[in-house]
Design brief:
The chain is an alpha+beta fold. It has 2 helices and 13 strands, in the order H-E-E-E-E-E-E-E-E-E-E-E-E-E-H.
């Protein structure tokens, strides 16, 4: 009995925040130059998946969610339930009335597109996670792998460069005026 329980725990379903879509799952992202970025929510190691719901919580003073795109996991049999963007979180859920899916390697449940608002660090935390099977029974246990984003401040040019470019503009403008007068 202990062996069976141990084997079941090792294959528990997992929901992950993937900060760098494509390739290996990355839980952290550093943004230095682009105000927009996307995050995938993945599921893996689950049998008979026929529905899911989750919230993704974040610091709304640092990032804002623009859109939620379904991973189209259930294809034509997808029944969207919730797709809501709030100031500090998103809520998303879908189900199917078709047979549940057997998923071993990570697949995308949803992609969330964000905009950077100001510099700082924000956790992206999955909450209210529920996976259900084709009989609408809850699937458990579910492991959670959260993510985080660091938004680096945009470096300002040194004061000398600002002063020099302003001075060059003024000199050029004054020359232009002196040529027009002559």
């Amino acid at each position: 009995m202990a062996l069976a329980l141990s084997a079941f725990s090792a294959s528990a379903a997992t929901l992950s925040v993937d900060m760098v879509p494509g390739g290996v799952i990355d839980q952290n992202l550093i943004i230095t130059d682009s105000p927009s970025f996307s995050v995938n929510i993945l599921v893996a190691d689950v049998a008979d998946l026929a529905g899911f719901e989750f919230n993704l919580d974040f610091d709304g003073t640092l990032i804002s969610a623009d859109s939620i795109i379904s991973g189209n996991l259930f294809g034509a049999d997808t029944w969207p339930i919730t797709s809501q963007i709030n100031a500090n979180s998103i809520s998303f859920s879908e189900t199917t009335f078709a047979a549940g899916l057997e998923i071993s390697s990570p697949v995308i449940l949803a992609t969330i597109n964000f905009q950077a608002v100001s510099p700082g660090s924000s956790s992206l935390t999955l909450s209210s996670v529920l996976l259900s099977d084709s009989l609408a029974a809850s699937i458990s246990p579910v492991g959670i792998e959260n993510g985080g984003v660091y938004l680096a401040p945009v470096p300002l040019p040194p004061a000398f460069l600002l002063f020099s470019s302003g001075l060059a503009w003024l000199v050029g403008r004054s020359r232009q005026k002196s040529l027009q007068v002559a």
